[in-house]
Amino acid sequence: MIFCDKDLLWLELVHTPEFALRYVPVLFERFGSVEEVFCADLLTLGECEIGSGAANGITARAGREAAEREAEILEREGIGLVSFESEDYPHLLKEISDPPPVLYCRGRLDLAEKPAVAMVGSRQSTAYGEQVAQRLAGDLAARGVAVVSGMARGIDQKAHIGALEAGGRTIAVIGSGLGNIYPPRSEKLVEAIAESGAVISEFPFDTPPSKGTFPQRNRIISGLCHATVVVEAGERSGALITARFALEQNRELLAVPGPISGRMSIATNYMIKKGAKLVQRVDDIIDELPAEARRALMQPTDKGPPPELNDAEAQVLELLSVDTPQHIDIIARLAGMATGDLSLTLLSLEMKSLVRQLPGAEYVRIF
């Protein structure tokens, strides 16, 4: 990608010492373009109340050298840049109080005309939560909704995977630079997301992940979307930060209920108690989207009749739970079946998308 003069000016602005996110709407409202910002004198910049350090840095062009270095890296790595005044900048994100000046993008952001829903949850997810996230994300993607999440292990990654398996689009917002992808060993998922959607960050290429960058990126996850769905969350889950941002940004907040004794359901059940909409199926989410977003959706496809089951399959399926994994030896004892016969039955149920195998030879029912 070749960066134009305007792109370089935006990179220069964000690399200016003491420049803060909250200055972007103020400067753009006053000057209308990044070119005019750099044409302003110190007195005029001071009238915008952006702070003397940032004003001095802009007039002294203190961020230029760093911007040129960053542009060289981005060009070499094939990473795009979407600035605040670009036509590709998501209009919903412009509405938040502290929009990112630029978004670094691997893939295609392309959210201008597409409804988007954030789906987030705990890293310490349960089998039940992972199934719910993957299923709901797939159903949303199949209807043409872009699924946005943070690519953390657990609920976030299952949401991305569900959208990809449905052939839809998903956007990953990461809490580090695109040269420091977190979590580690996520390269294949990053490639898959970028191929049909985008992996984005507001942080320069080499920025490492930190305790401060993850909460900061959460406002972008909710800010990109019409609604945020929390699938699972403990008392201190980072997903609660995204939920708070969604409310502050005047976006819809929804939550998936869980077992009353479940540690990962404490926060979601509390959200529902306090007014968040309860989610049991994809239509519960669709119903909360604005009318114009609903009109843009594709109609659900007929999945056909449920698969036929023989007696052994029906018996085993009845023994399985959606939220409590069962070891194959326990299932065999409860069903009164030899392990070899049970393995064939479980394989048949997996092929019919009714059962999922977990690590450790444990199985759960898929809804």
Which tags fit this structure?
367 residues, alpha/beta, Rossmann fold, Arc Repressor Mutant, subunit A, nine-stranded mixed beta sheet, three-stranded antiparallel beta sheet, 18 helices, 12 strands
Explain how this protein is built:
- The protein is 44% helix and 13% strand.
- The protein folds into 3 domains: 1-76, no CATH class; 116-295, Rossmann fold; 311-365, Winged helix-like DNA-binding domain superfamily/Winged helix DNA-binding domain (Arc Repressor Mutant, subunit A).
- The protein has 18 helices and 12 strands.
- It has a 9-stranded mixed sheet with strand order 1-2-6-5-4-3-7-8-9, with helices on both faces. Strands 10-12-11 form a 3-stranded antiparallel sheet.
- Helix 8 runs parallel beside helix 9 (155-165), helix 11 crosses helix 12 and helix 16 crosses helix 18 (339-351).
- The two termini are 45 Å apart.
- The longest helix is centred in the middle third of the chain and has 16 residues, at 127-142.
- By secondary structure, the chain is α/β, with parallel strands linked by helices.
- Strand 11 (355-358) and strand 12 form a beta hairpin.
- It has helices at 5-14, 23-31, 34-39, 42-47, 52-59, 64-77, 91-94, 127-142, 155-165, 187-196, 213-223, 239-248, 266-273, 282-286, 291-295, 311-319, 328-335, 339-351, and strands spanning 80-83, 102-107, 116-120, 146-149, 170-173, 198-201, 227-230, 252-255, 277-278, 326-327, 355-358, 362-365.
